Amino acid sequence: MTRKLLTGNGAAAWGARLALTDYIPAFPITPQTEIIEDLSIWIDKGEMDARMVTLESEHSMITAAGSAASSGVRVFTATSSQGLLHGMEMVYTVAGWRTPFVMINVSRGMSSPITLESDHNDIMAARDSGFLQIHCATCQEITDSVLMAYRLAEHKEIRVPAIVNLDGFYLSFTREPVDLPDAEKAAAFVGEFDPENLQFKGSAPLSQAMAVLGGGPYSYFRYEAHLAVQHALSVYDEIADEFADTFGRRYDIIDNYQMDDAEYVFVMLGSFATKAHNAVDSLRKAGWKVGLARLRIFRPFPKEKIRQLLKGRRAVAVIDQNISMGMGGVLHSEFATALYGMKDAPAVLASFIGGLGGRDISQQEFFEMINEIKQASDKGESLEPRLLYTENELTEIRKLQAIAHAEHEEIHQQRDG
Amino acid sequence: MIEGTPVHFHRMKDMPSSHLLGTGTPMCAGCGGLETLHNMYDILGEKTVFVNAAGCMTLLSVYPFTPFRGGWLYTSMASAPAGAQGVRDAMDIMIKKKKLPEDENMEVVVVTGDGSAYGMGMSATSGAMDRNLNFIYLCYDNEGYGNTGQQYSAATPHAAITSTSKGSHGYPGFKKDLFSIWAAHHPAYVATIIGAEPLDLAKKIEKLQGMTGPRMLISLAPCPTGWDYDPQLSVEIGHLAVQTGVWPLKEYINGKVTHTKIPKQRKPVEEYLKLQGRFKHLFYPQRDEQGIAEIQARIDAYWDNVTE
Amino acid sequence: MFRIRFHGRGGQGMKTASRILGTAFFIEGYEVQDAPRYGAERRGAPIFAYVRADKVAVNERGIISHPDLVVVSDDTLVGMPAAGVMQGIDQNTVLLINSHETADTWQQRLNTQAKIIILPAQEEIEDRAELPYIGSQCAAAAAALSHVISKQTFTQALTEELQHLGDEVVKQNLAVASTAFDAMAPHSGIVKESALPSATDYIKPEWIELPFEKAEISAPAIHSGATSVKVRTGLWRTMRPVINYEKCSGCWWICSTYCPDGAINVTDDKLPDIDYDHCKGCLVCVAQCPPHAIESIPEHIAKEKELAGAKS
Q1: Thinking of the domain A254-384, which architecture would CATH place it in?
Q2: Which of A155, A387, A405, B301 is surrounded by the most beta carbons within 10 Å?
Q3: Neighbours of B (≥3 Cβ pairs closer than 8 A)?
Q4: CB of C150 within 8 A of CB of C24?
Q5: Which residues constitute the domain of residue C306?
Q6: What burial class does residue C110 get, using C-beta atoms within 10 Å of its C-beta: 0-12 exposed, 13-18 middle, 19+ buried?
Q7: pLDDT tens-digit profile of A84-106?
Q8: What CATH number is attached to the domain comprising B171?
Q9: How high is the ipTM of this complex?
Q10: Does A254-384 match A2-247 at the fold level?
């Protein structure tokens, strides 16, 4: 095992290399591009026995990923934000083929307005597609999750593609120490891909991915895919145990920190959870019983585990780095669904939307979220959803609007005054 | 064509007399596209993976019914050539890594309608040719979005009535020259074919089988439903498309375009037009001399420049 | 509520029939739904369309499972399970068949409790895919049977719906529709409106837990070749090509190669053989055969001959 400094993108590329990926359909997009650059260099040097092809779009890239996996090879691909959405027709389509491969999504906010920086609206758009989703908080977790994602996706009872998600910039371009798994052990852990009877070959007639007529057959195929995705929860622990035995690192479906006696809980996805981790430490020092529950596996959604975990807690702050227009935070809705009707459910399930387009969440904001949910819980009140946004940020946008000549009374005053 | 490959299809009698493609498909009676496909499949054989884009032929395989004896994969309207890329690459990798015996190899064939080939799928097609993908591409061109009820597409000919060009003069645009667009990519092979000329078709399929790289085919696909004529006229209309010069049969190899069947005495285009309801307005209630002459002039201008 | 289903072949105008009837009900002050059933239908293939009409808002949607009236434009469809003509028919249903045969014959043949009425077939035409005016006739007959649509209203509805085809077409359709309307006079009112399903006495849906199955079973994939031959597209055929082997020159490639469906194969004797289970009746072979050795005959006549041959 080698410990070295790797960016999140570098860690993702190492995951693909260690998993002995055969085929990489690619398309460049910031902040993902470094992944395919690393892989192409390794292939050119002969360090990796794989073929990489740059397609002319992500839509084509995901098509080629699915069709290659349907022809028996182990496939890896990567994209981000606009690319993921450009390929979204095929994200849904290839999942329905029941064809396993691993795709990295480097999370980046969606246009419009266009941005290069990170949030989770891109990956949320793939929520209902039939892909498994693993969300990472560290570079180490990225390499490890790619290996585990192949095991899950290729599991005979599952056979759906998987997305390993990492945050743009905060992970993609950030170097951290990573213990690189030993190549032989990684190869043994991932094993050979067995395409079973879903592989084109000259001797076996096989029509894949055809039309159906009528709602009965359609419902069957769609629901079976749903059951397969759900089944990943049942086989996950076995794979995680084996991973822990082999590599000494344990990853659970929900990554819990200081949850044993926690009365107040942060719930979130992705790399900002390490910030929350620090906030929990500071709040604990200040005498608060606070914990952090980071969802690693977002699809399938671990509803039962969430219910057990949050039973009897006083208040929960759900932090969404995404926004469903006209509804609010997606994670918050899903937690509300999971907890609805449960006896001893937390009385306060508050929604905070933060980190849109790479906006940071400060430690003080973490502290204040806990303060707000505690007060609401003490008073027996609920909390309105809140966007994490400061007065200073509004002042800054006013300055920009003044330059942009946006018509607004307050701005006129500012400009004229 | 690779030197020394024997040509098997000298005469019509050389055409296969039993057919590989399963019957019982939901294509319309008299479908010109199906006529091309089944003749092509007889020659290519069952070790073929068809990668399909959304169009009429998507309905060839409707669970649990398929007419194919080898492979079929439906992708999307825009990305069938990319689907072919994945299948081709995967098979090459598997063979190289000795995970698939060579005799399990299959030819990869994209099948799309003109809606995909001339429009939404063009970027993916161009990309596949850029990458010199070793595949065959068949566009069955029925000159409109047929599966949705024949709205005009970039393949619709001038003056044709479609369900989105019902005005008194039909479609105002002109059919896009996909052959030239494809040839400009310098792929291994580009050819036009038609089901009504099975020998020409067979010779071309046989020729491209001896090649590697992108091998591109556009088949005019007379369409009783979309063009509004009696299904039994499908082959007759196909013959007339060739005899009037509306559909030049040609091929592109190594930078050179050769016409494979030059009509000695071109018939007037109206013989082709008048059989089809979509051009009825050129003849009823009164003859549109100018409209017919314009169409004829464009055909004449094309052939004026043809020397071989 | 009236629930009326029209069955026919692609090209016979069942969608038009449902629209004419829908408009007629609408003019009479009814709330209406009319719709064709789309799918992979092609010319000659069995299709259907339906109409619902009520004095209150129509909240039912989708395919009519228990029709009050079923209208069949082409009697060759009645016995064809794939056409679904008999689906949901019970003793309260009226079955109107466009046929040369009598109601008694059909009653015996179908062994059904439904009331059968015959819409006397107009003069026979060769190709039933081109039955002229049949959509208008069916709509007119259905309107008359309902007893709530006046002839004047029906005329107005038909005119509205066919106006875009020109005055001459409207006139011809009105003429035959009028005859059909009048022919149904003795049965006027036989079609009764039926109520909404009862919520007090109903058959429980047989819900099950969908079993979770491995991908190798539950992926949408077909692991066999040419399974499409199980689909008998020969049922679409309204005209049958018949080879006169005395005239056949044994060229053997023309009909076989040109048949779009590949439904003509060559026998060991080097003679073509038409697969009638799958021939869709496009008649390309008839048009292309050099010695004109293939003729076309109406499918229903070919069927009758077959039956007669089987009996003798």
Answers
A1: 3-Layer(aba) Sandwich (3.40)
A2: A155
A3: A, C
A4: no
A5: 233-311
A6: middle
A7: 999 999 999 999 999 999 999 99
A8: 3.40.50.970
A9: 0.95
A10: yes
